């Protein structure tokens, strides 16, 4: 070989090695996403602890198999009226659009949830959106899903809580359905700022905080409950899930805005990919129970009355025999 050819070959080998090392590093360190080369199918291999576990989320909720269970009422603190020192910041984290619930004075208990059979009082960190939905119900995928991420206040920090099975985190899930003719006012707080968070790393602090409750359905007493995981690597199996049965109705324009306004990439990246279909596929239950809170207060108590009548008739018949 001529010296020049040797040099070129050496350079080529060097470049190829660098490329291989870089892609390996990329796949293993924060390189996950939703495309075929880094999407959900690759997570169990790339993040075996926990994405390859037995209690993974999301799942398909099969409503007929859910076990009825009565829970005490869920309590929400700070959801209706924003706390005085609340500060909301929307951002594109490269995987989803997220709103961080911050405090100007560093409080962690501005927004909390408790009750509802939750094993403690949980501090709310943030909420974010997946479109389409991650959980499906009887095989149906909704247009989008909001996750409100909270951590058990009995642990010192959110980070400490994030590794504690089974009660470190609790996530509230609201399914979104584009069936409304008019824009949902709560959702409009998100949609109106999408242009400010088009690329990964971009963020915008709201001058005035809005009501988190504006993104919830009116009925928060009926939900499904099961034990699962974070739906993104490392898929920590630390989550008490609450999925509200009543969906939030948004408009087709609002879902279209979610699908077309943002990118997975940082500004200036070559080959921009639209931030869309950022959901993990469903995972097997593996023997877990899904509970159905089935709160029927306020619903006419027809069924028990009919049942009582049937029993009365049957017993009187039995007595006559
Ligand atoms: C049941 O629903 C009613 C009406 O929404 C509510 O007032 C009550 O607190 C709920 N009870 C539980 C246990 O969630
Ligand atoms: C928000 O954006 C600013 C300006 O680009 C940036 O300096 C800052 O690091 C971002 N903050 C977060 C939390 O992403
Ligand atoms: Zn999520």
TrEMBL record:
It comes from the Eukaryota. This is Carbonic anhydrase. Reversible hydration of carbon dioxide. GO terms for molecular function: carbonate dehydratase activity; zinc ion binding. InterPro entries: CA_dom, CA_dom_sf, Carbonic_anhydrase_a-class, Carbonic_anhydrase_a-class_CS. Its cofactor is Zn(2+). Residues 30-294 form the Alpha-carbonic anhydrase domain. It comes from Branchiostoma floridae. Residues 1-27 form the signal peptide. SMART domains: Carb_anhydrase. Keywords: Glycoprotein, Lyase, Metal-binding, Signal, Zinc. GO terms for cellular component: plasma membrane. It catalyses: hydrogencarbonate + H(+) = CO2 + H2O. Belongs to the alpha-carbonic anhydrase family. Its EC number is 4.2.1.1.
């Amino acid at each position: 070989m001529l010296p020049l050819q040797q040099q070129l070959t050496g350079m080529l080998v060097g470049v190829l090695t660098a490329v291989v090392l870089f892609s390996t590093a990329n796949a293993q360190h924060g390189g996950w996403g939703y495309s075929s080369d880094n999407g959900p199918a690759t997570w169990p291999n790339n993040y075996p602890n926990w994405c390859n576990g037995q209690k993974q989320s999301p799942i398909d909720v099969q409503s007929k198999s859910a076990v009825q269970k009565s829970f005490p009422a869920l309590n929400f603190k700070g959801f209706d009226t924003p706390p005085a020192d609340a500060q909301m910041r929307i951002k594109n984290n490269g995987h989803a659009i997220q709103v961080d619930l911050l405090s100007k004075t560093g409080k962690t208990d501005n927004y909390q949830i408790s009750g509802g059979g939750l094993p403690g009082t949980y501090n709310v960190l943030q909420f974010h959106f997946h479109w389409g939905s991650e959980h499906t119900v009887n095989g149906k995928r909704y247009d989008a899903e909001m996750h409100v991420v909270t951590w058990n206040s009995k642990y010192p920090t959110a980070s400490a809580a994030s590794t504690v099975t089974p009660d470190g985190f609790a996530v509230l899930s609201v399914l979104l359905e584009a069936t409304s003719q008019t824009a949902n006012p709560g959702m409009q707080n998100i949609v109106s700022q999408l242009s400010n968070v088009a690329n990964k790393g971009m963020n915008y602090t709201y001058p005035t905080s809005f009501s988190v409750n504006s993104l919830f359905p009116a009925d928060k007493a009926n939900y499904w409950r099961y034990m699962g995981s974070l739906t993104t690597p490392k898929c920590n199996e630390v989550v008490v899930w609450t999925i509200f049965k009543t969906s939030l109705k948004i408009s087709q324009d609002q879902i279209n805005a979610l699908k077309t306004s943002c990118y997975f990439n940082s500004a200036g990246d070559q080959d921009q990919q639209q931030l869309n279909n950022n959901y993990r596929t469903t995972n097997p239950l593996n023997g877990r129970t899904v509970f159905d809170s089935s709160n029927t207060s306020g619903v006419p108590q027809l069924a028990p009355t009919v049942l009582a009548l049937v029993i009365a008739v049957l017993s009187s018949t039995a007595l006559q025999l």
